[in-house]
Write the structure tokens for this entry.
Amino acid sequence: RCYFSFMDLKLLFISANAESCGDCIQAGAKCGWCTDTDFLKQGEPTSARCDELDSLKKRGCMATKIENPRGSQRILRNKPVTNRKKGGEKLKPEDITQIQPQKLALSLRSGEAQTINLKFKRAEDYPIDLYYLMDLSYSMKDDLENVKNLGTSLMLEMSKITSDFRIGFGSFVEKTVMPYISTTPAKLLNPCTGDQNCTSPFSYKNVLKLTSNGKQFNTLVGQQQISGNLDSPEGGFDAIMQVAVCGEHIGWRNVTRLLVFSTDAGFHFAGDGKLGGIVLPNDGKCHLENNMYTMSHHYDYPSIAHLVQKLSDNNIQTIFAVTEEFQPVYKELKNLIPKSAVGTLSANSSNVINLIIDAYNSLSSEVILENSKLPEGVTIAYQSRCKNGLVSTGEDGRKCSNISIGDEVSFSINVTAQGCPKHSKSESIKIRPLGFTEEVEIRLGFICDCECQKDGIVSKDLCHYGNGTFECGACRCKKGRVGRDCECRRDEVSSEDLDRNCRKDNSTDLCSNNGECVCGKCECKKRDNPEEYYSGKYCECDNFNCDRSNNKLCGGHGRCECRVCVCDANYTGSACDCSLDTSTCLASNNQICNGRGICECGTCRCTDPKFQGPTWVVLSFGTGEKKDTCERDCNYFTLIKVKDRDKLPQPVQTFPLMHCKERDANDCWFYYTYAVNNNTEVHVVETLECPAGPDIIPIVAGVVAGIVLIGLALLLIWKLLMIIHDRREFAKFEKEKMNAKWDTGENPIYKSAVTTVVNPKYEGK
């Protein structure tokens, strides 16, 4: 009975079959369980204790007897966000807080959302780690010259943003197998042509671990040499994977992590390794030895989804610095990788510093929340409150854009559970802003049982000699036992002897066809409408099949009990539609019905035959039941005709006047007044208001037109079918004509009279 339109079928099933308080509260947030032992009526099953809170109260369950636990939340760690200015107190990265609170515990009731509020503030002077990953294939030769001085120049620019900046460098080319590179001994030593001096090809090399020494960056990068490969796409995805997962080798700290990926070519991805006979999927693990990737010949390239996962897990924001030719490709890739940016690299990488600064500002001005995998049955919804009062929901509720340093934004997060988890009653989820190492941990507890279940009683005096536990006002039966008091075994539920007790007056219907016979007792079925129910020993009663008035059950002035209306005070009748109030019968002289009748159901019934309302008024039109005896029976009043309703007299204080409107036997309305002074005067409008008859001509015309149109449509359909049939027959004829094996000049049954015999011994001599 307790269900809502937004619940799934599983919860509907639980609510309709709630045999315990725990089952009931899992059906929805508005469901409650009545623990009153005398609550159930005869024929109602135990599950009838589970209902909407308002419905339980209407059915007589006191609020103190309703079990209705609610969810709650506790904040376990609530460190304030950091308010620090550049040049102020030097803090360790782990001492800087940008999101608040950091840890919470939620107690979830099924169907009831718990709302948590998060606050995020971009800290000023936040540390940054930047790793520059460069394509060293031959086409990037002129770019390498400009990158050699990148260290000190980038250090100088980034010092305007943060006082704690570190930079690292790595390079990549391609997998060291055919057909990606030439494996001839000479080409393995120098893959370049002519007199170009190039280094041996390699997959990925970690040249410089993250450092704050810009000069060391310049020195080591200056020692690098260009290499070469055969195909145009490069093996950059292998390098990105190793940079993401080899945190100790790269030197990543728990700060803002930026990966600059610089290339002038496309990329290989999962599946391309088959060209070189490599079929094992990338395992997403670190395989660096002496700062070289050693398993490029063993594992395939990673997929885009795999890269997205690893970059997200390690809070790395990617900046793709690529030439204009490959902008469309990498912009599509950016749409698949959260917290990434694409910049246009000049032909010789001379603009790389401005590109990095612009991309960093773009990435850091947006905060996007993501959550870990949710437990089964748990949903989460976000609402953001960003700058300038902008409020967003849905997927847009996860993020805020155009955030400057020092700006504070907030998020409201609704966590809702539907039911309880199957295996564990405690779970946890984590929420964090993409690209940041900080996170919010949320511990989830689930309300799966009621408090009253802890006080369950197992006794031989209860639940049919201890065949169940008496808890929350009802018996919770042991396995294999059924019935309100667990008095019956499941295997004997439908025996003929027990079914006999469920038939009223020896009828053939079990429980009046309104319930099921369980252990010789009727348990009445439930209705879709939670306000309606069956009851009684044989489910013969209900509260919805009583007489109605004005389309309302019991006229809206009573309640239906066992198909009989029990009327409220001052109402009577089978449908409680008869009012005992006499105020509506009180005339202007304060007499009931002018002293000439009695008040029944709020309406006057005249006792004097001279006062019968409209009976004598129709005499004005020569109709009515007394038209032949009018002069004899109706001479006690004066009948005055008027032209229209405006000419009828109006009420005055000296004598009572009644305005009336009635319908005659011809369905025409007439208007009149009557007044009683020294004599009775009746004024009546001489013109009747009769309804206009139907206009026959449009009806007949419409029917004729419809018949004609249907006939034309049938003719058109017949003609279309004939055309299709003729075309098929003609096509069949043409096909048979083309398949003929003789022409028109040869008889197919003709056989020549000449027979030729060849001597097999003849040698032509």
Residues 3-15, 613-618 have pLDDT under 50 and may be disordered. The longest strand covers residues 408-417. Residues 696-738 form the longest helix (43 residues).
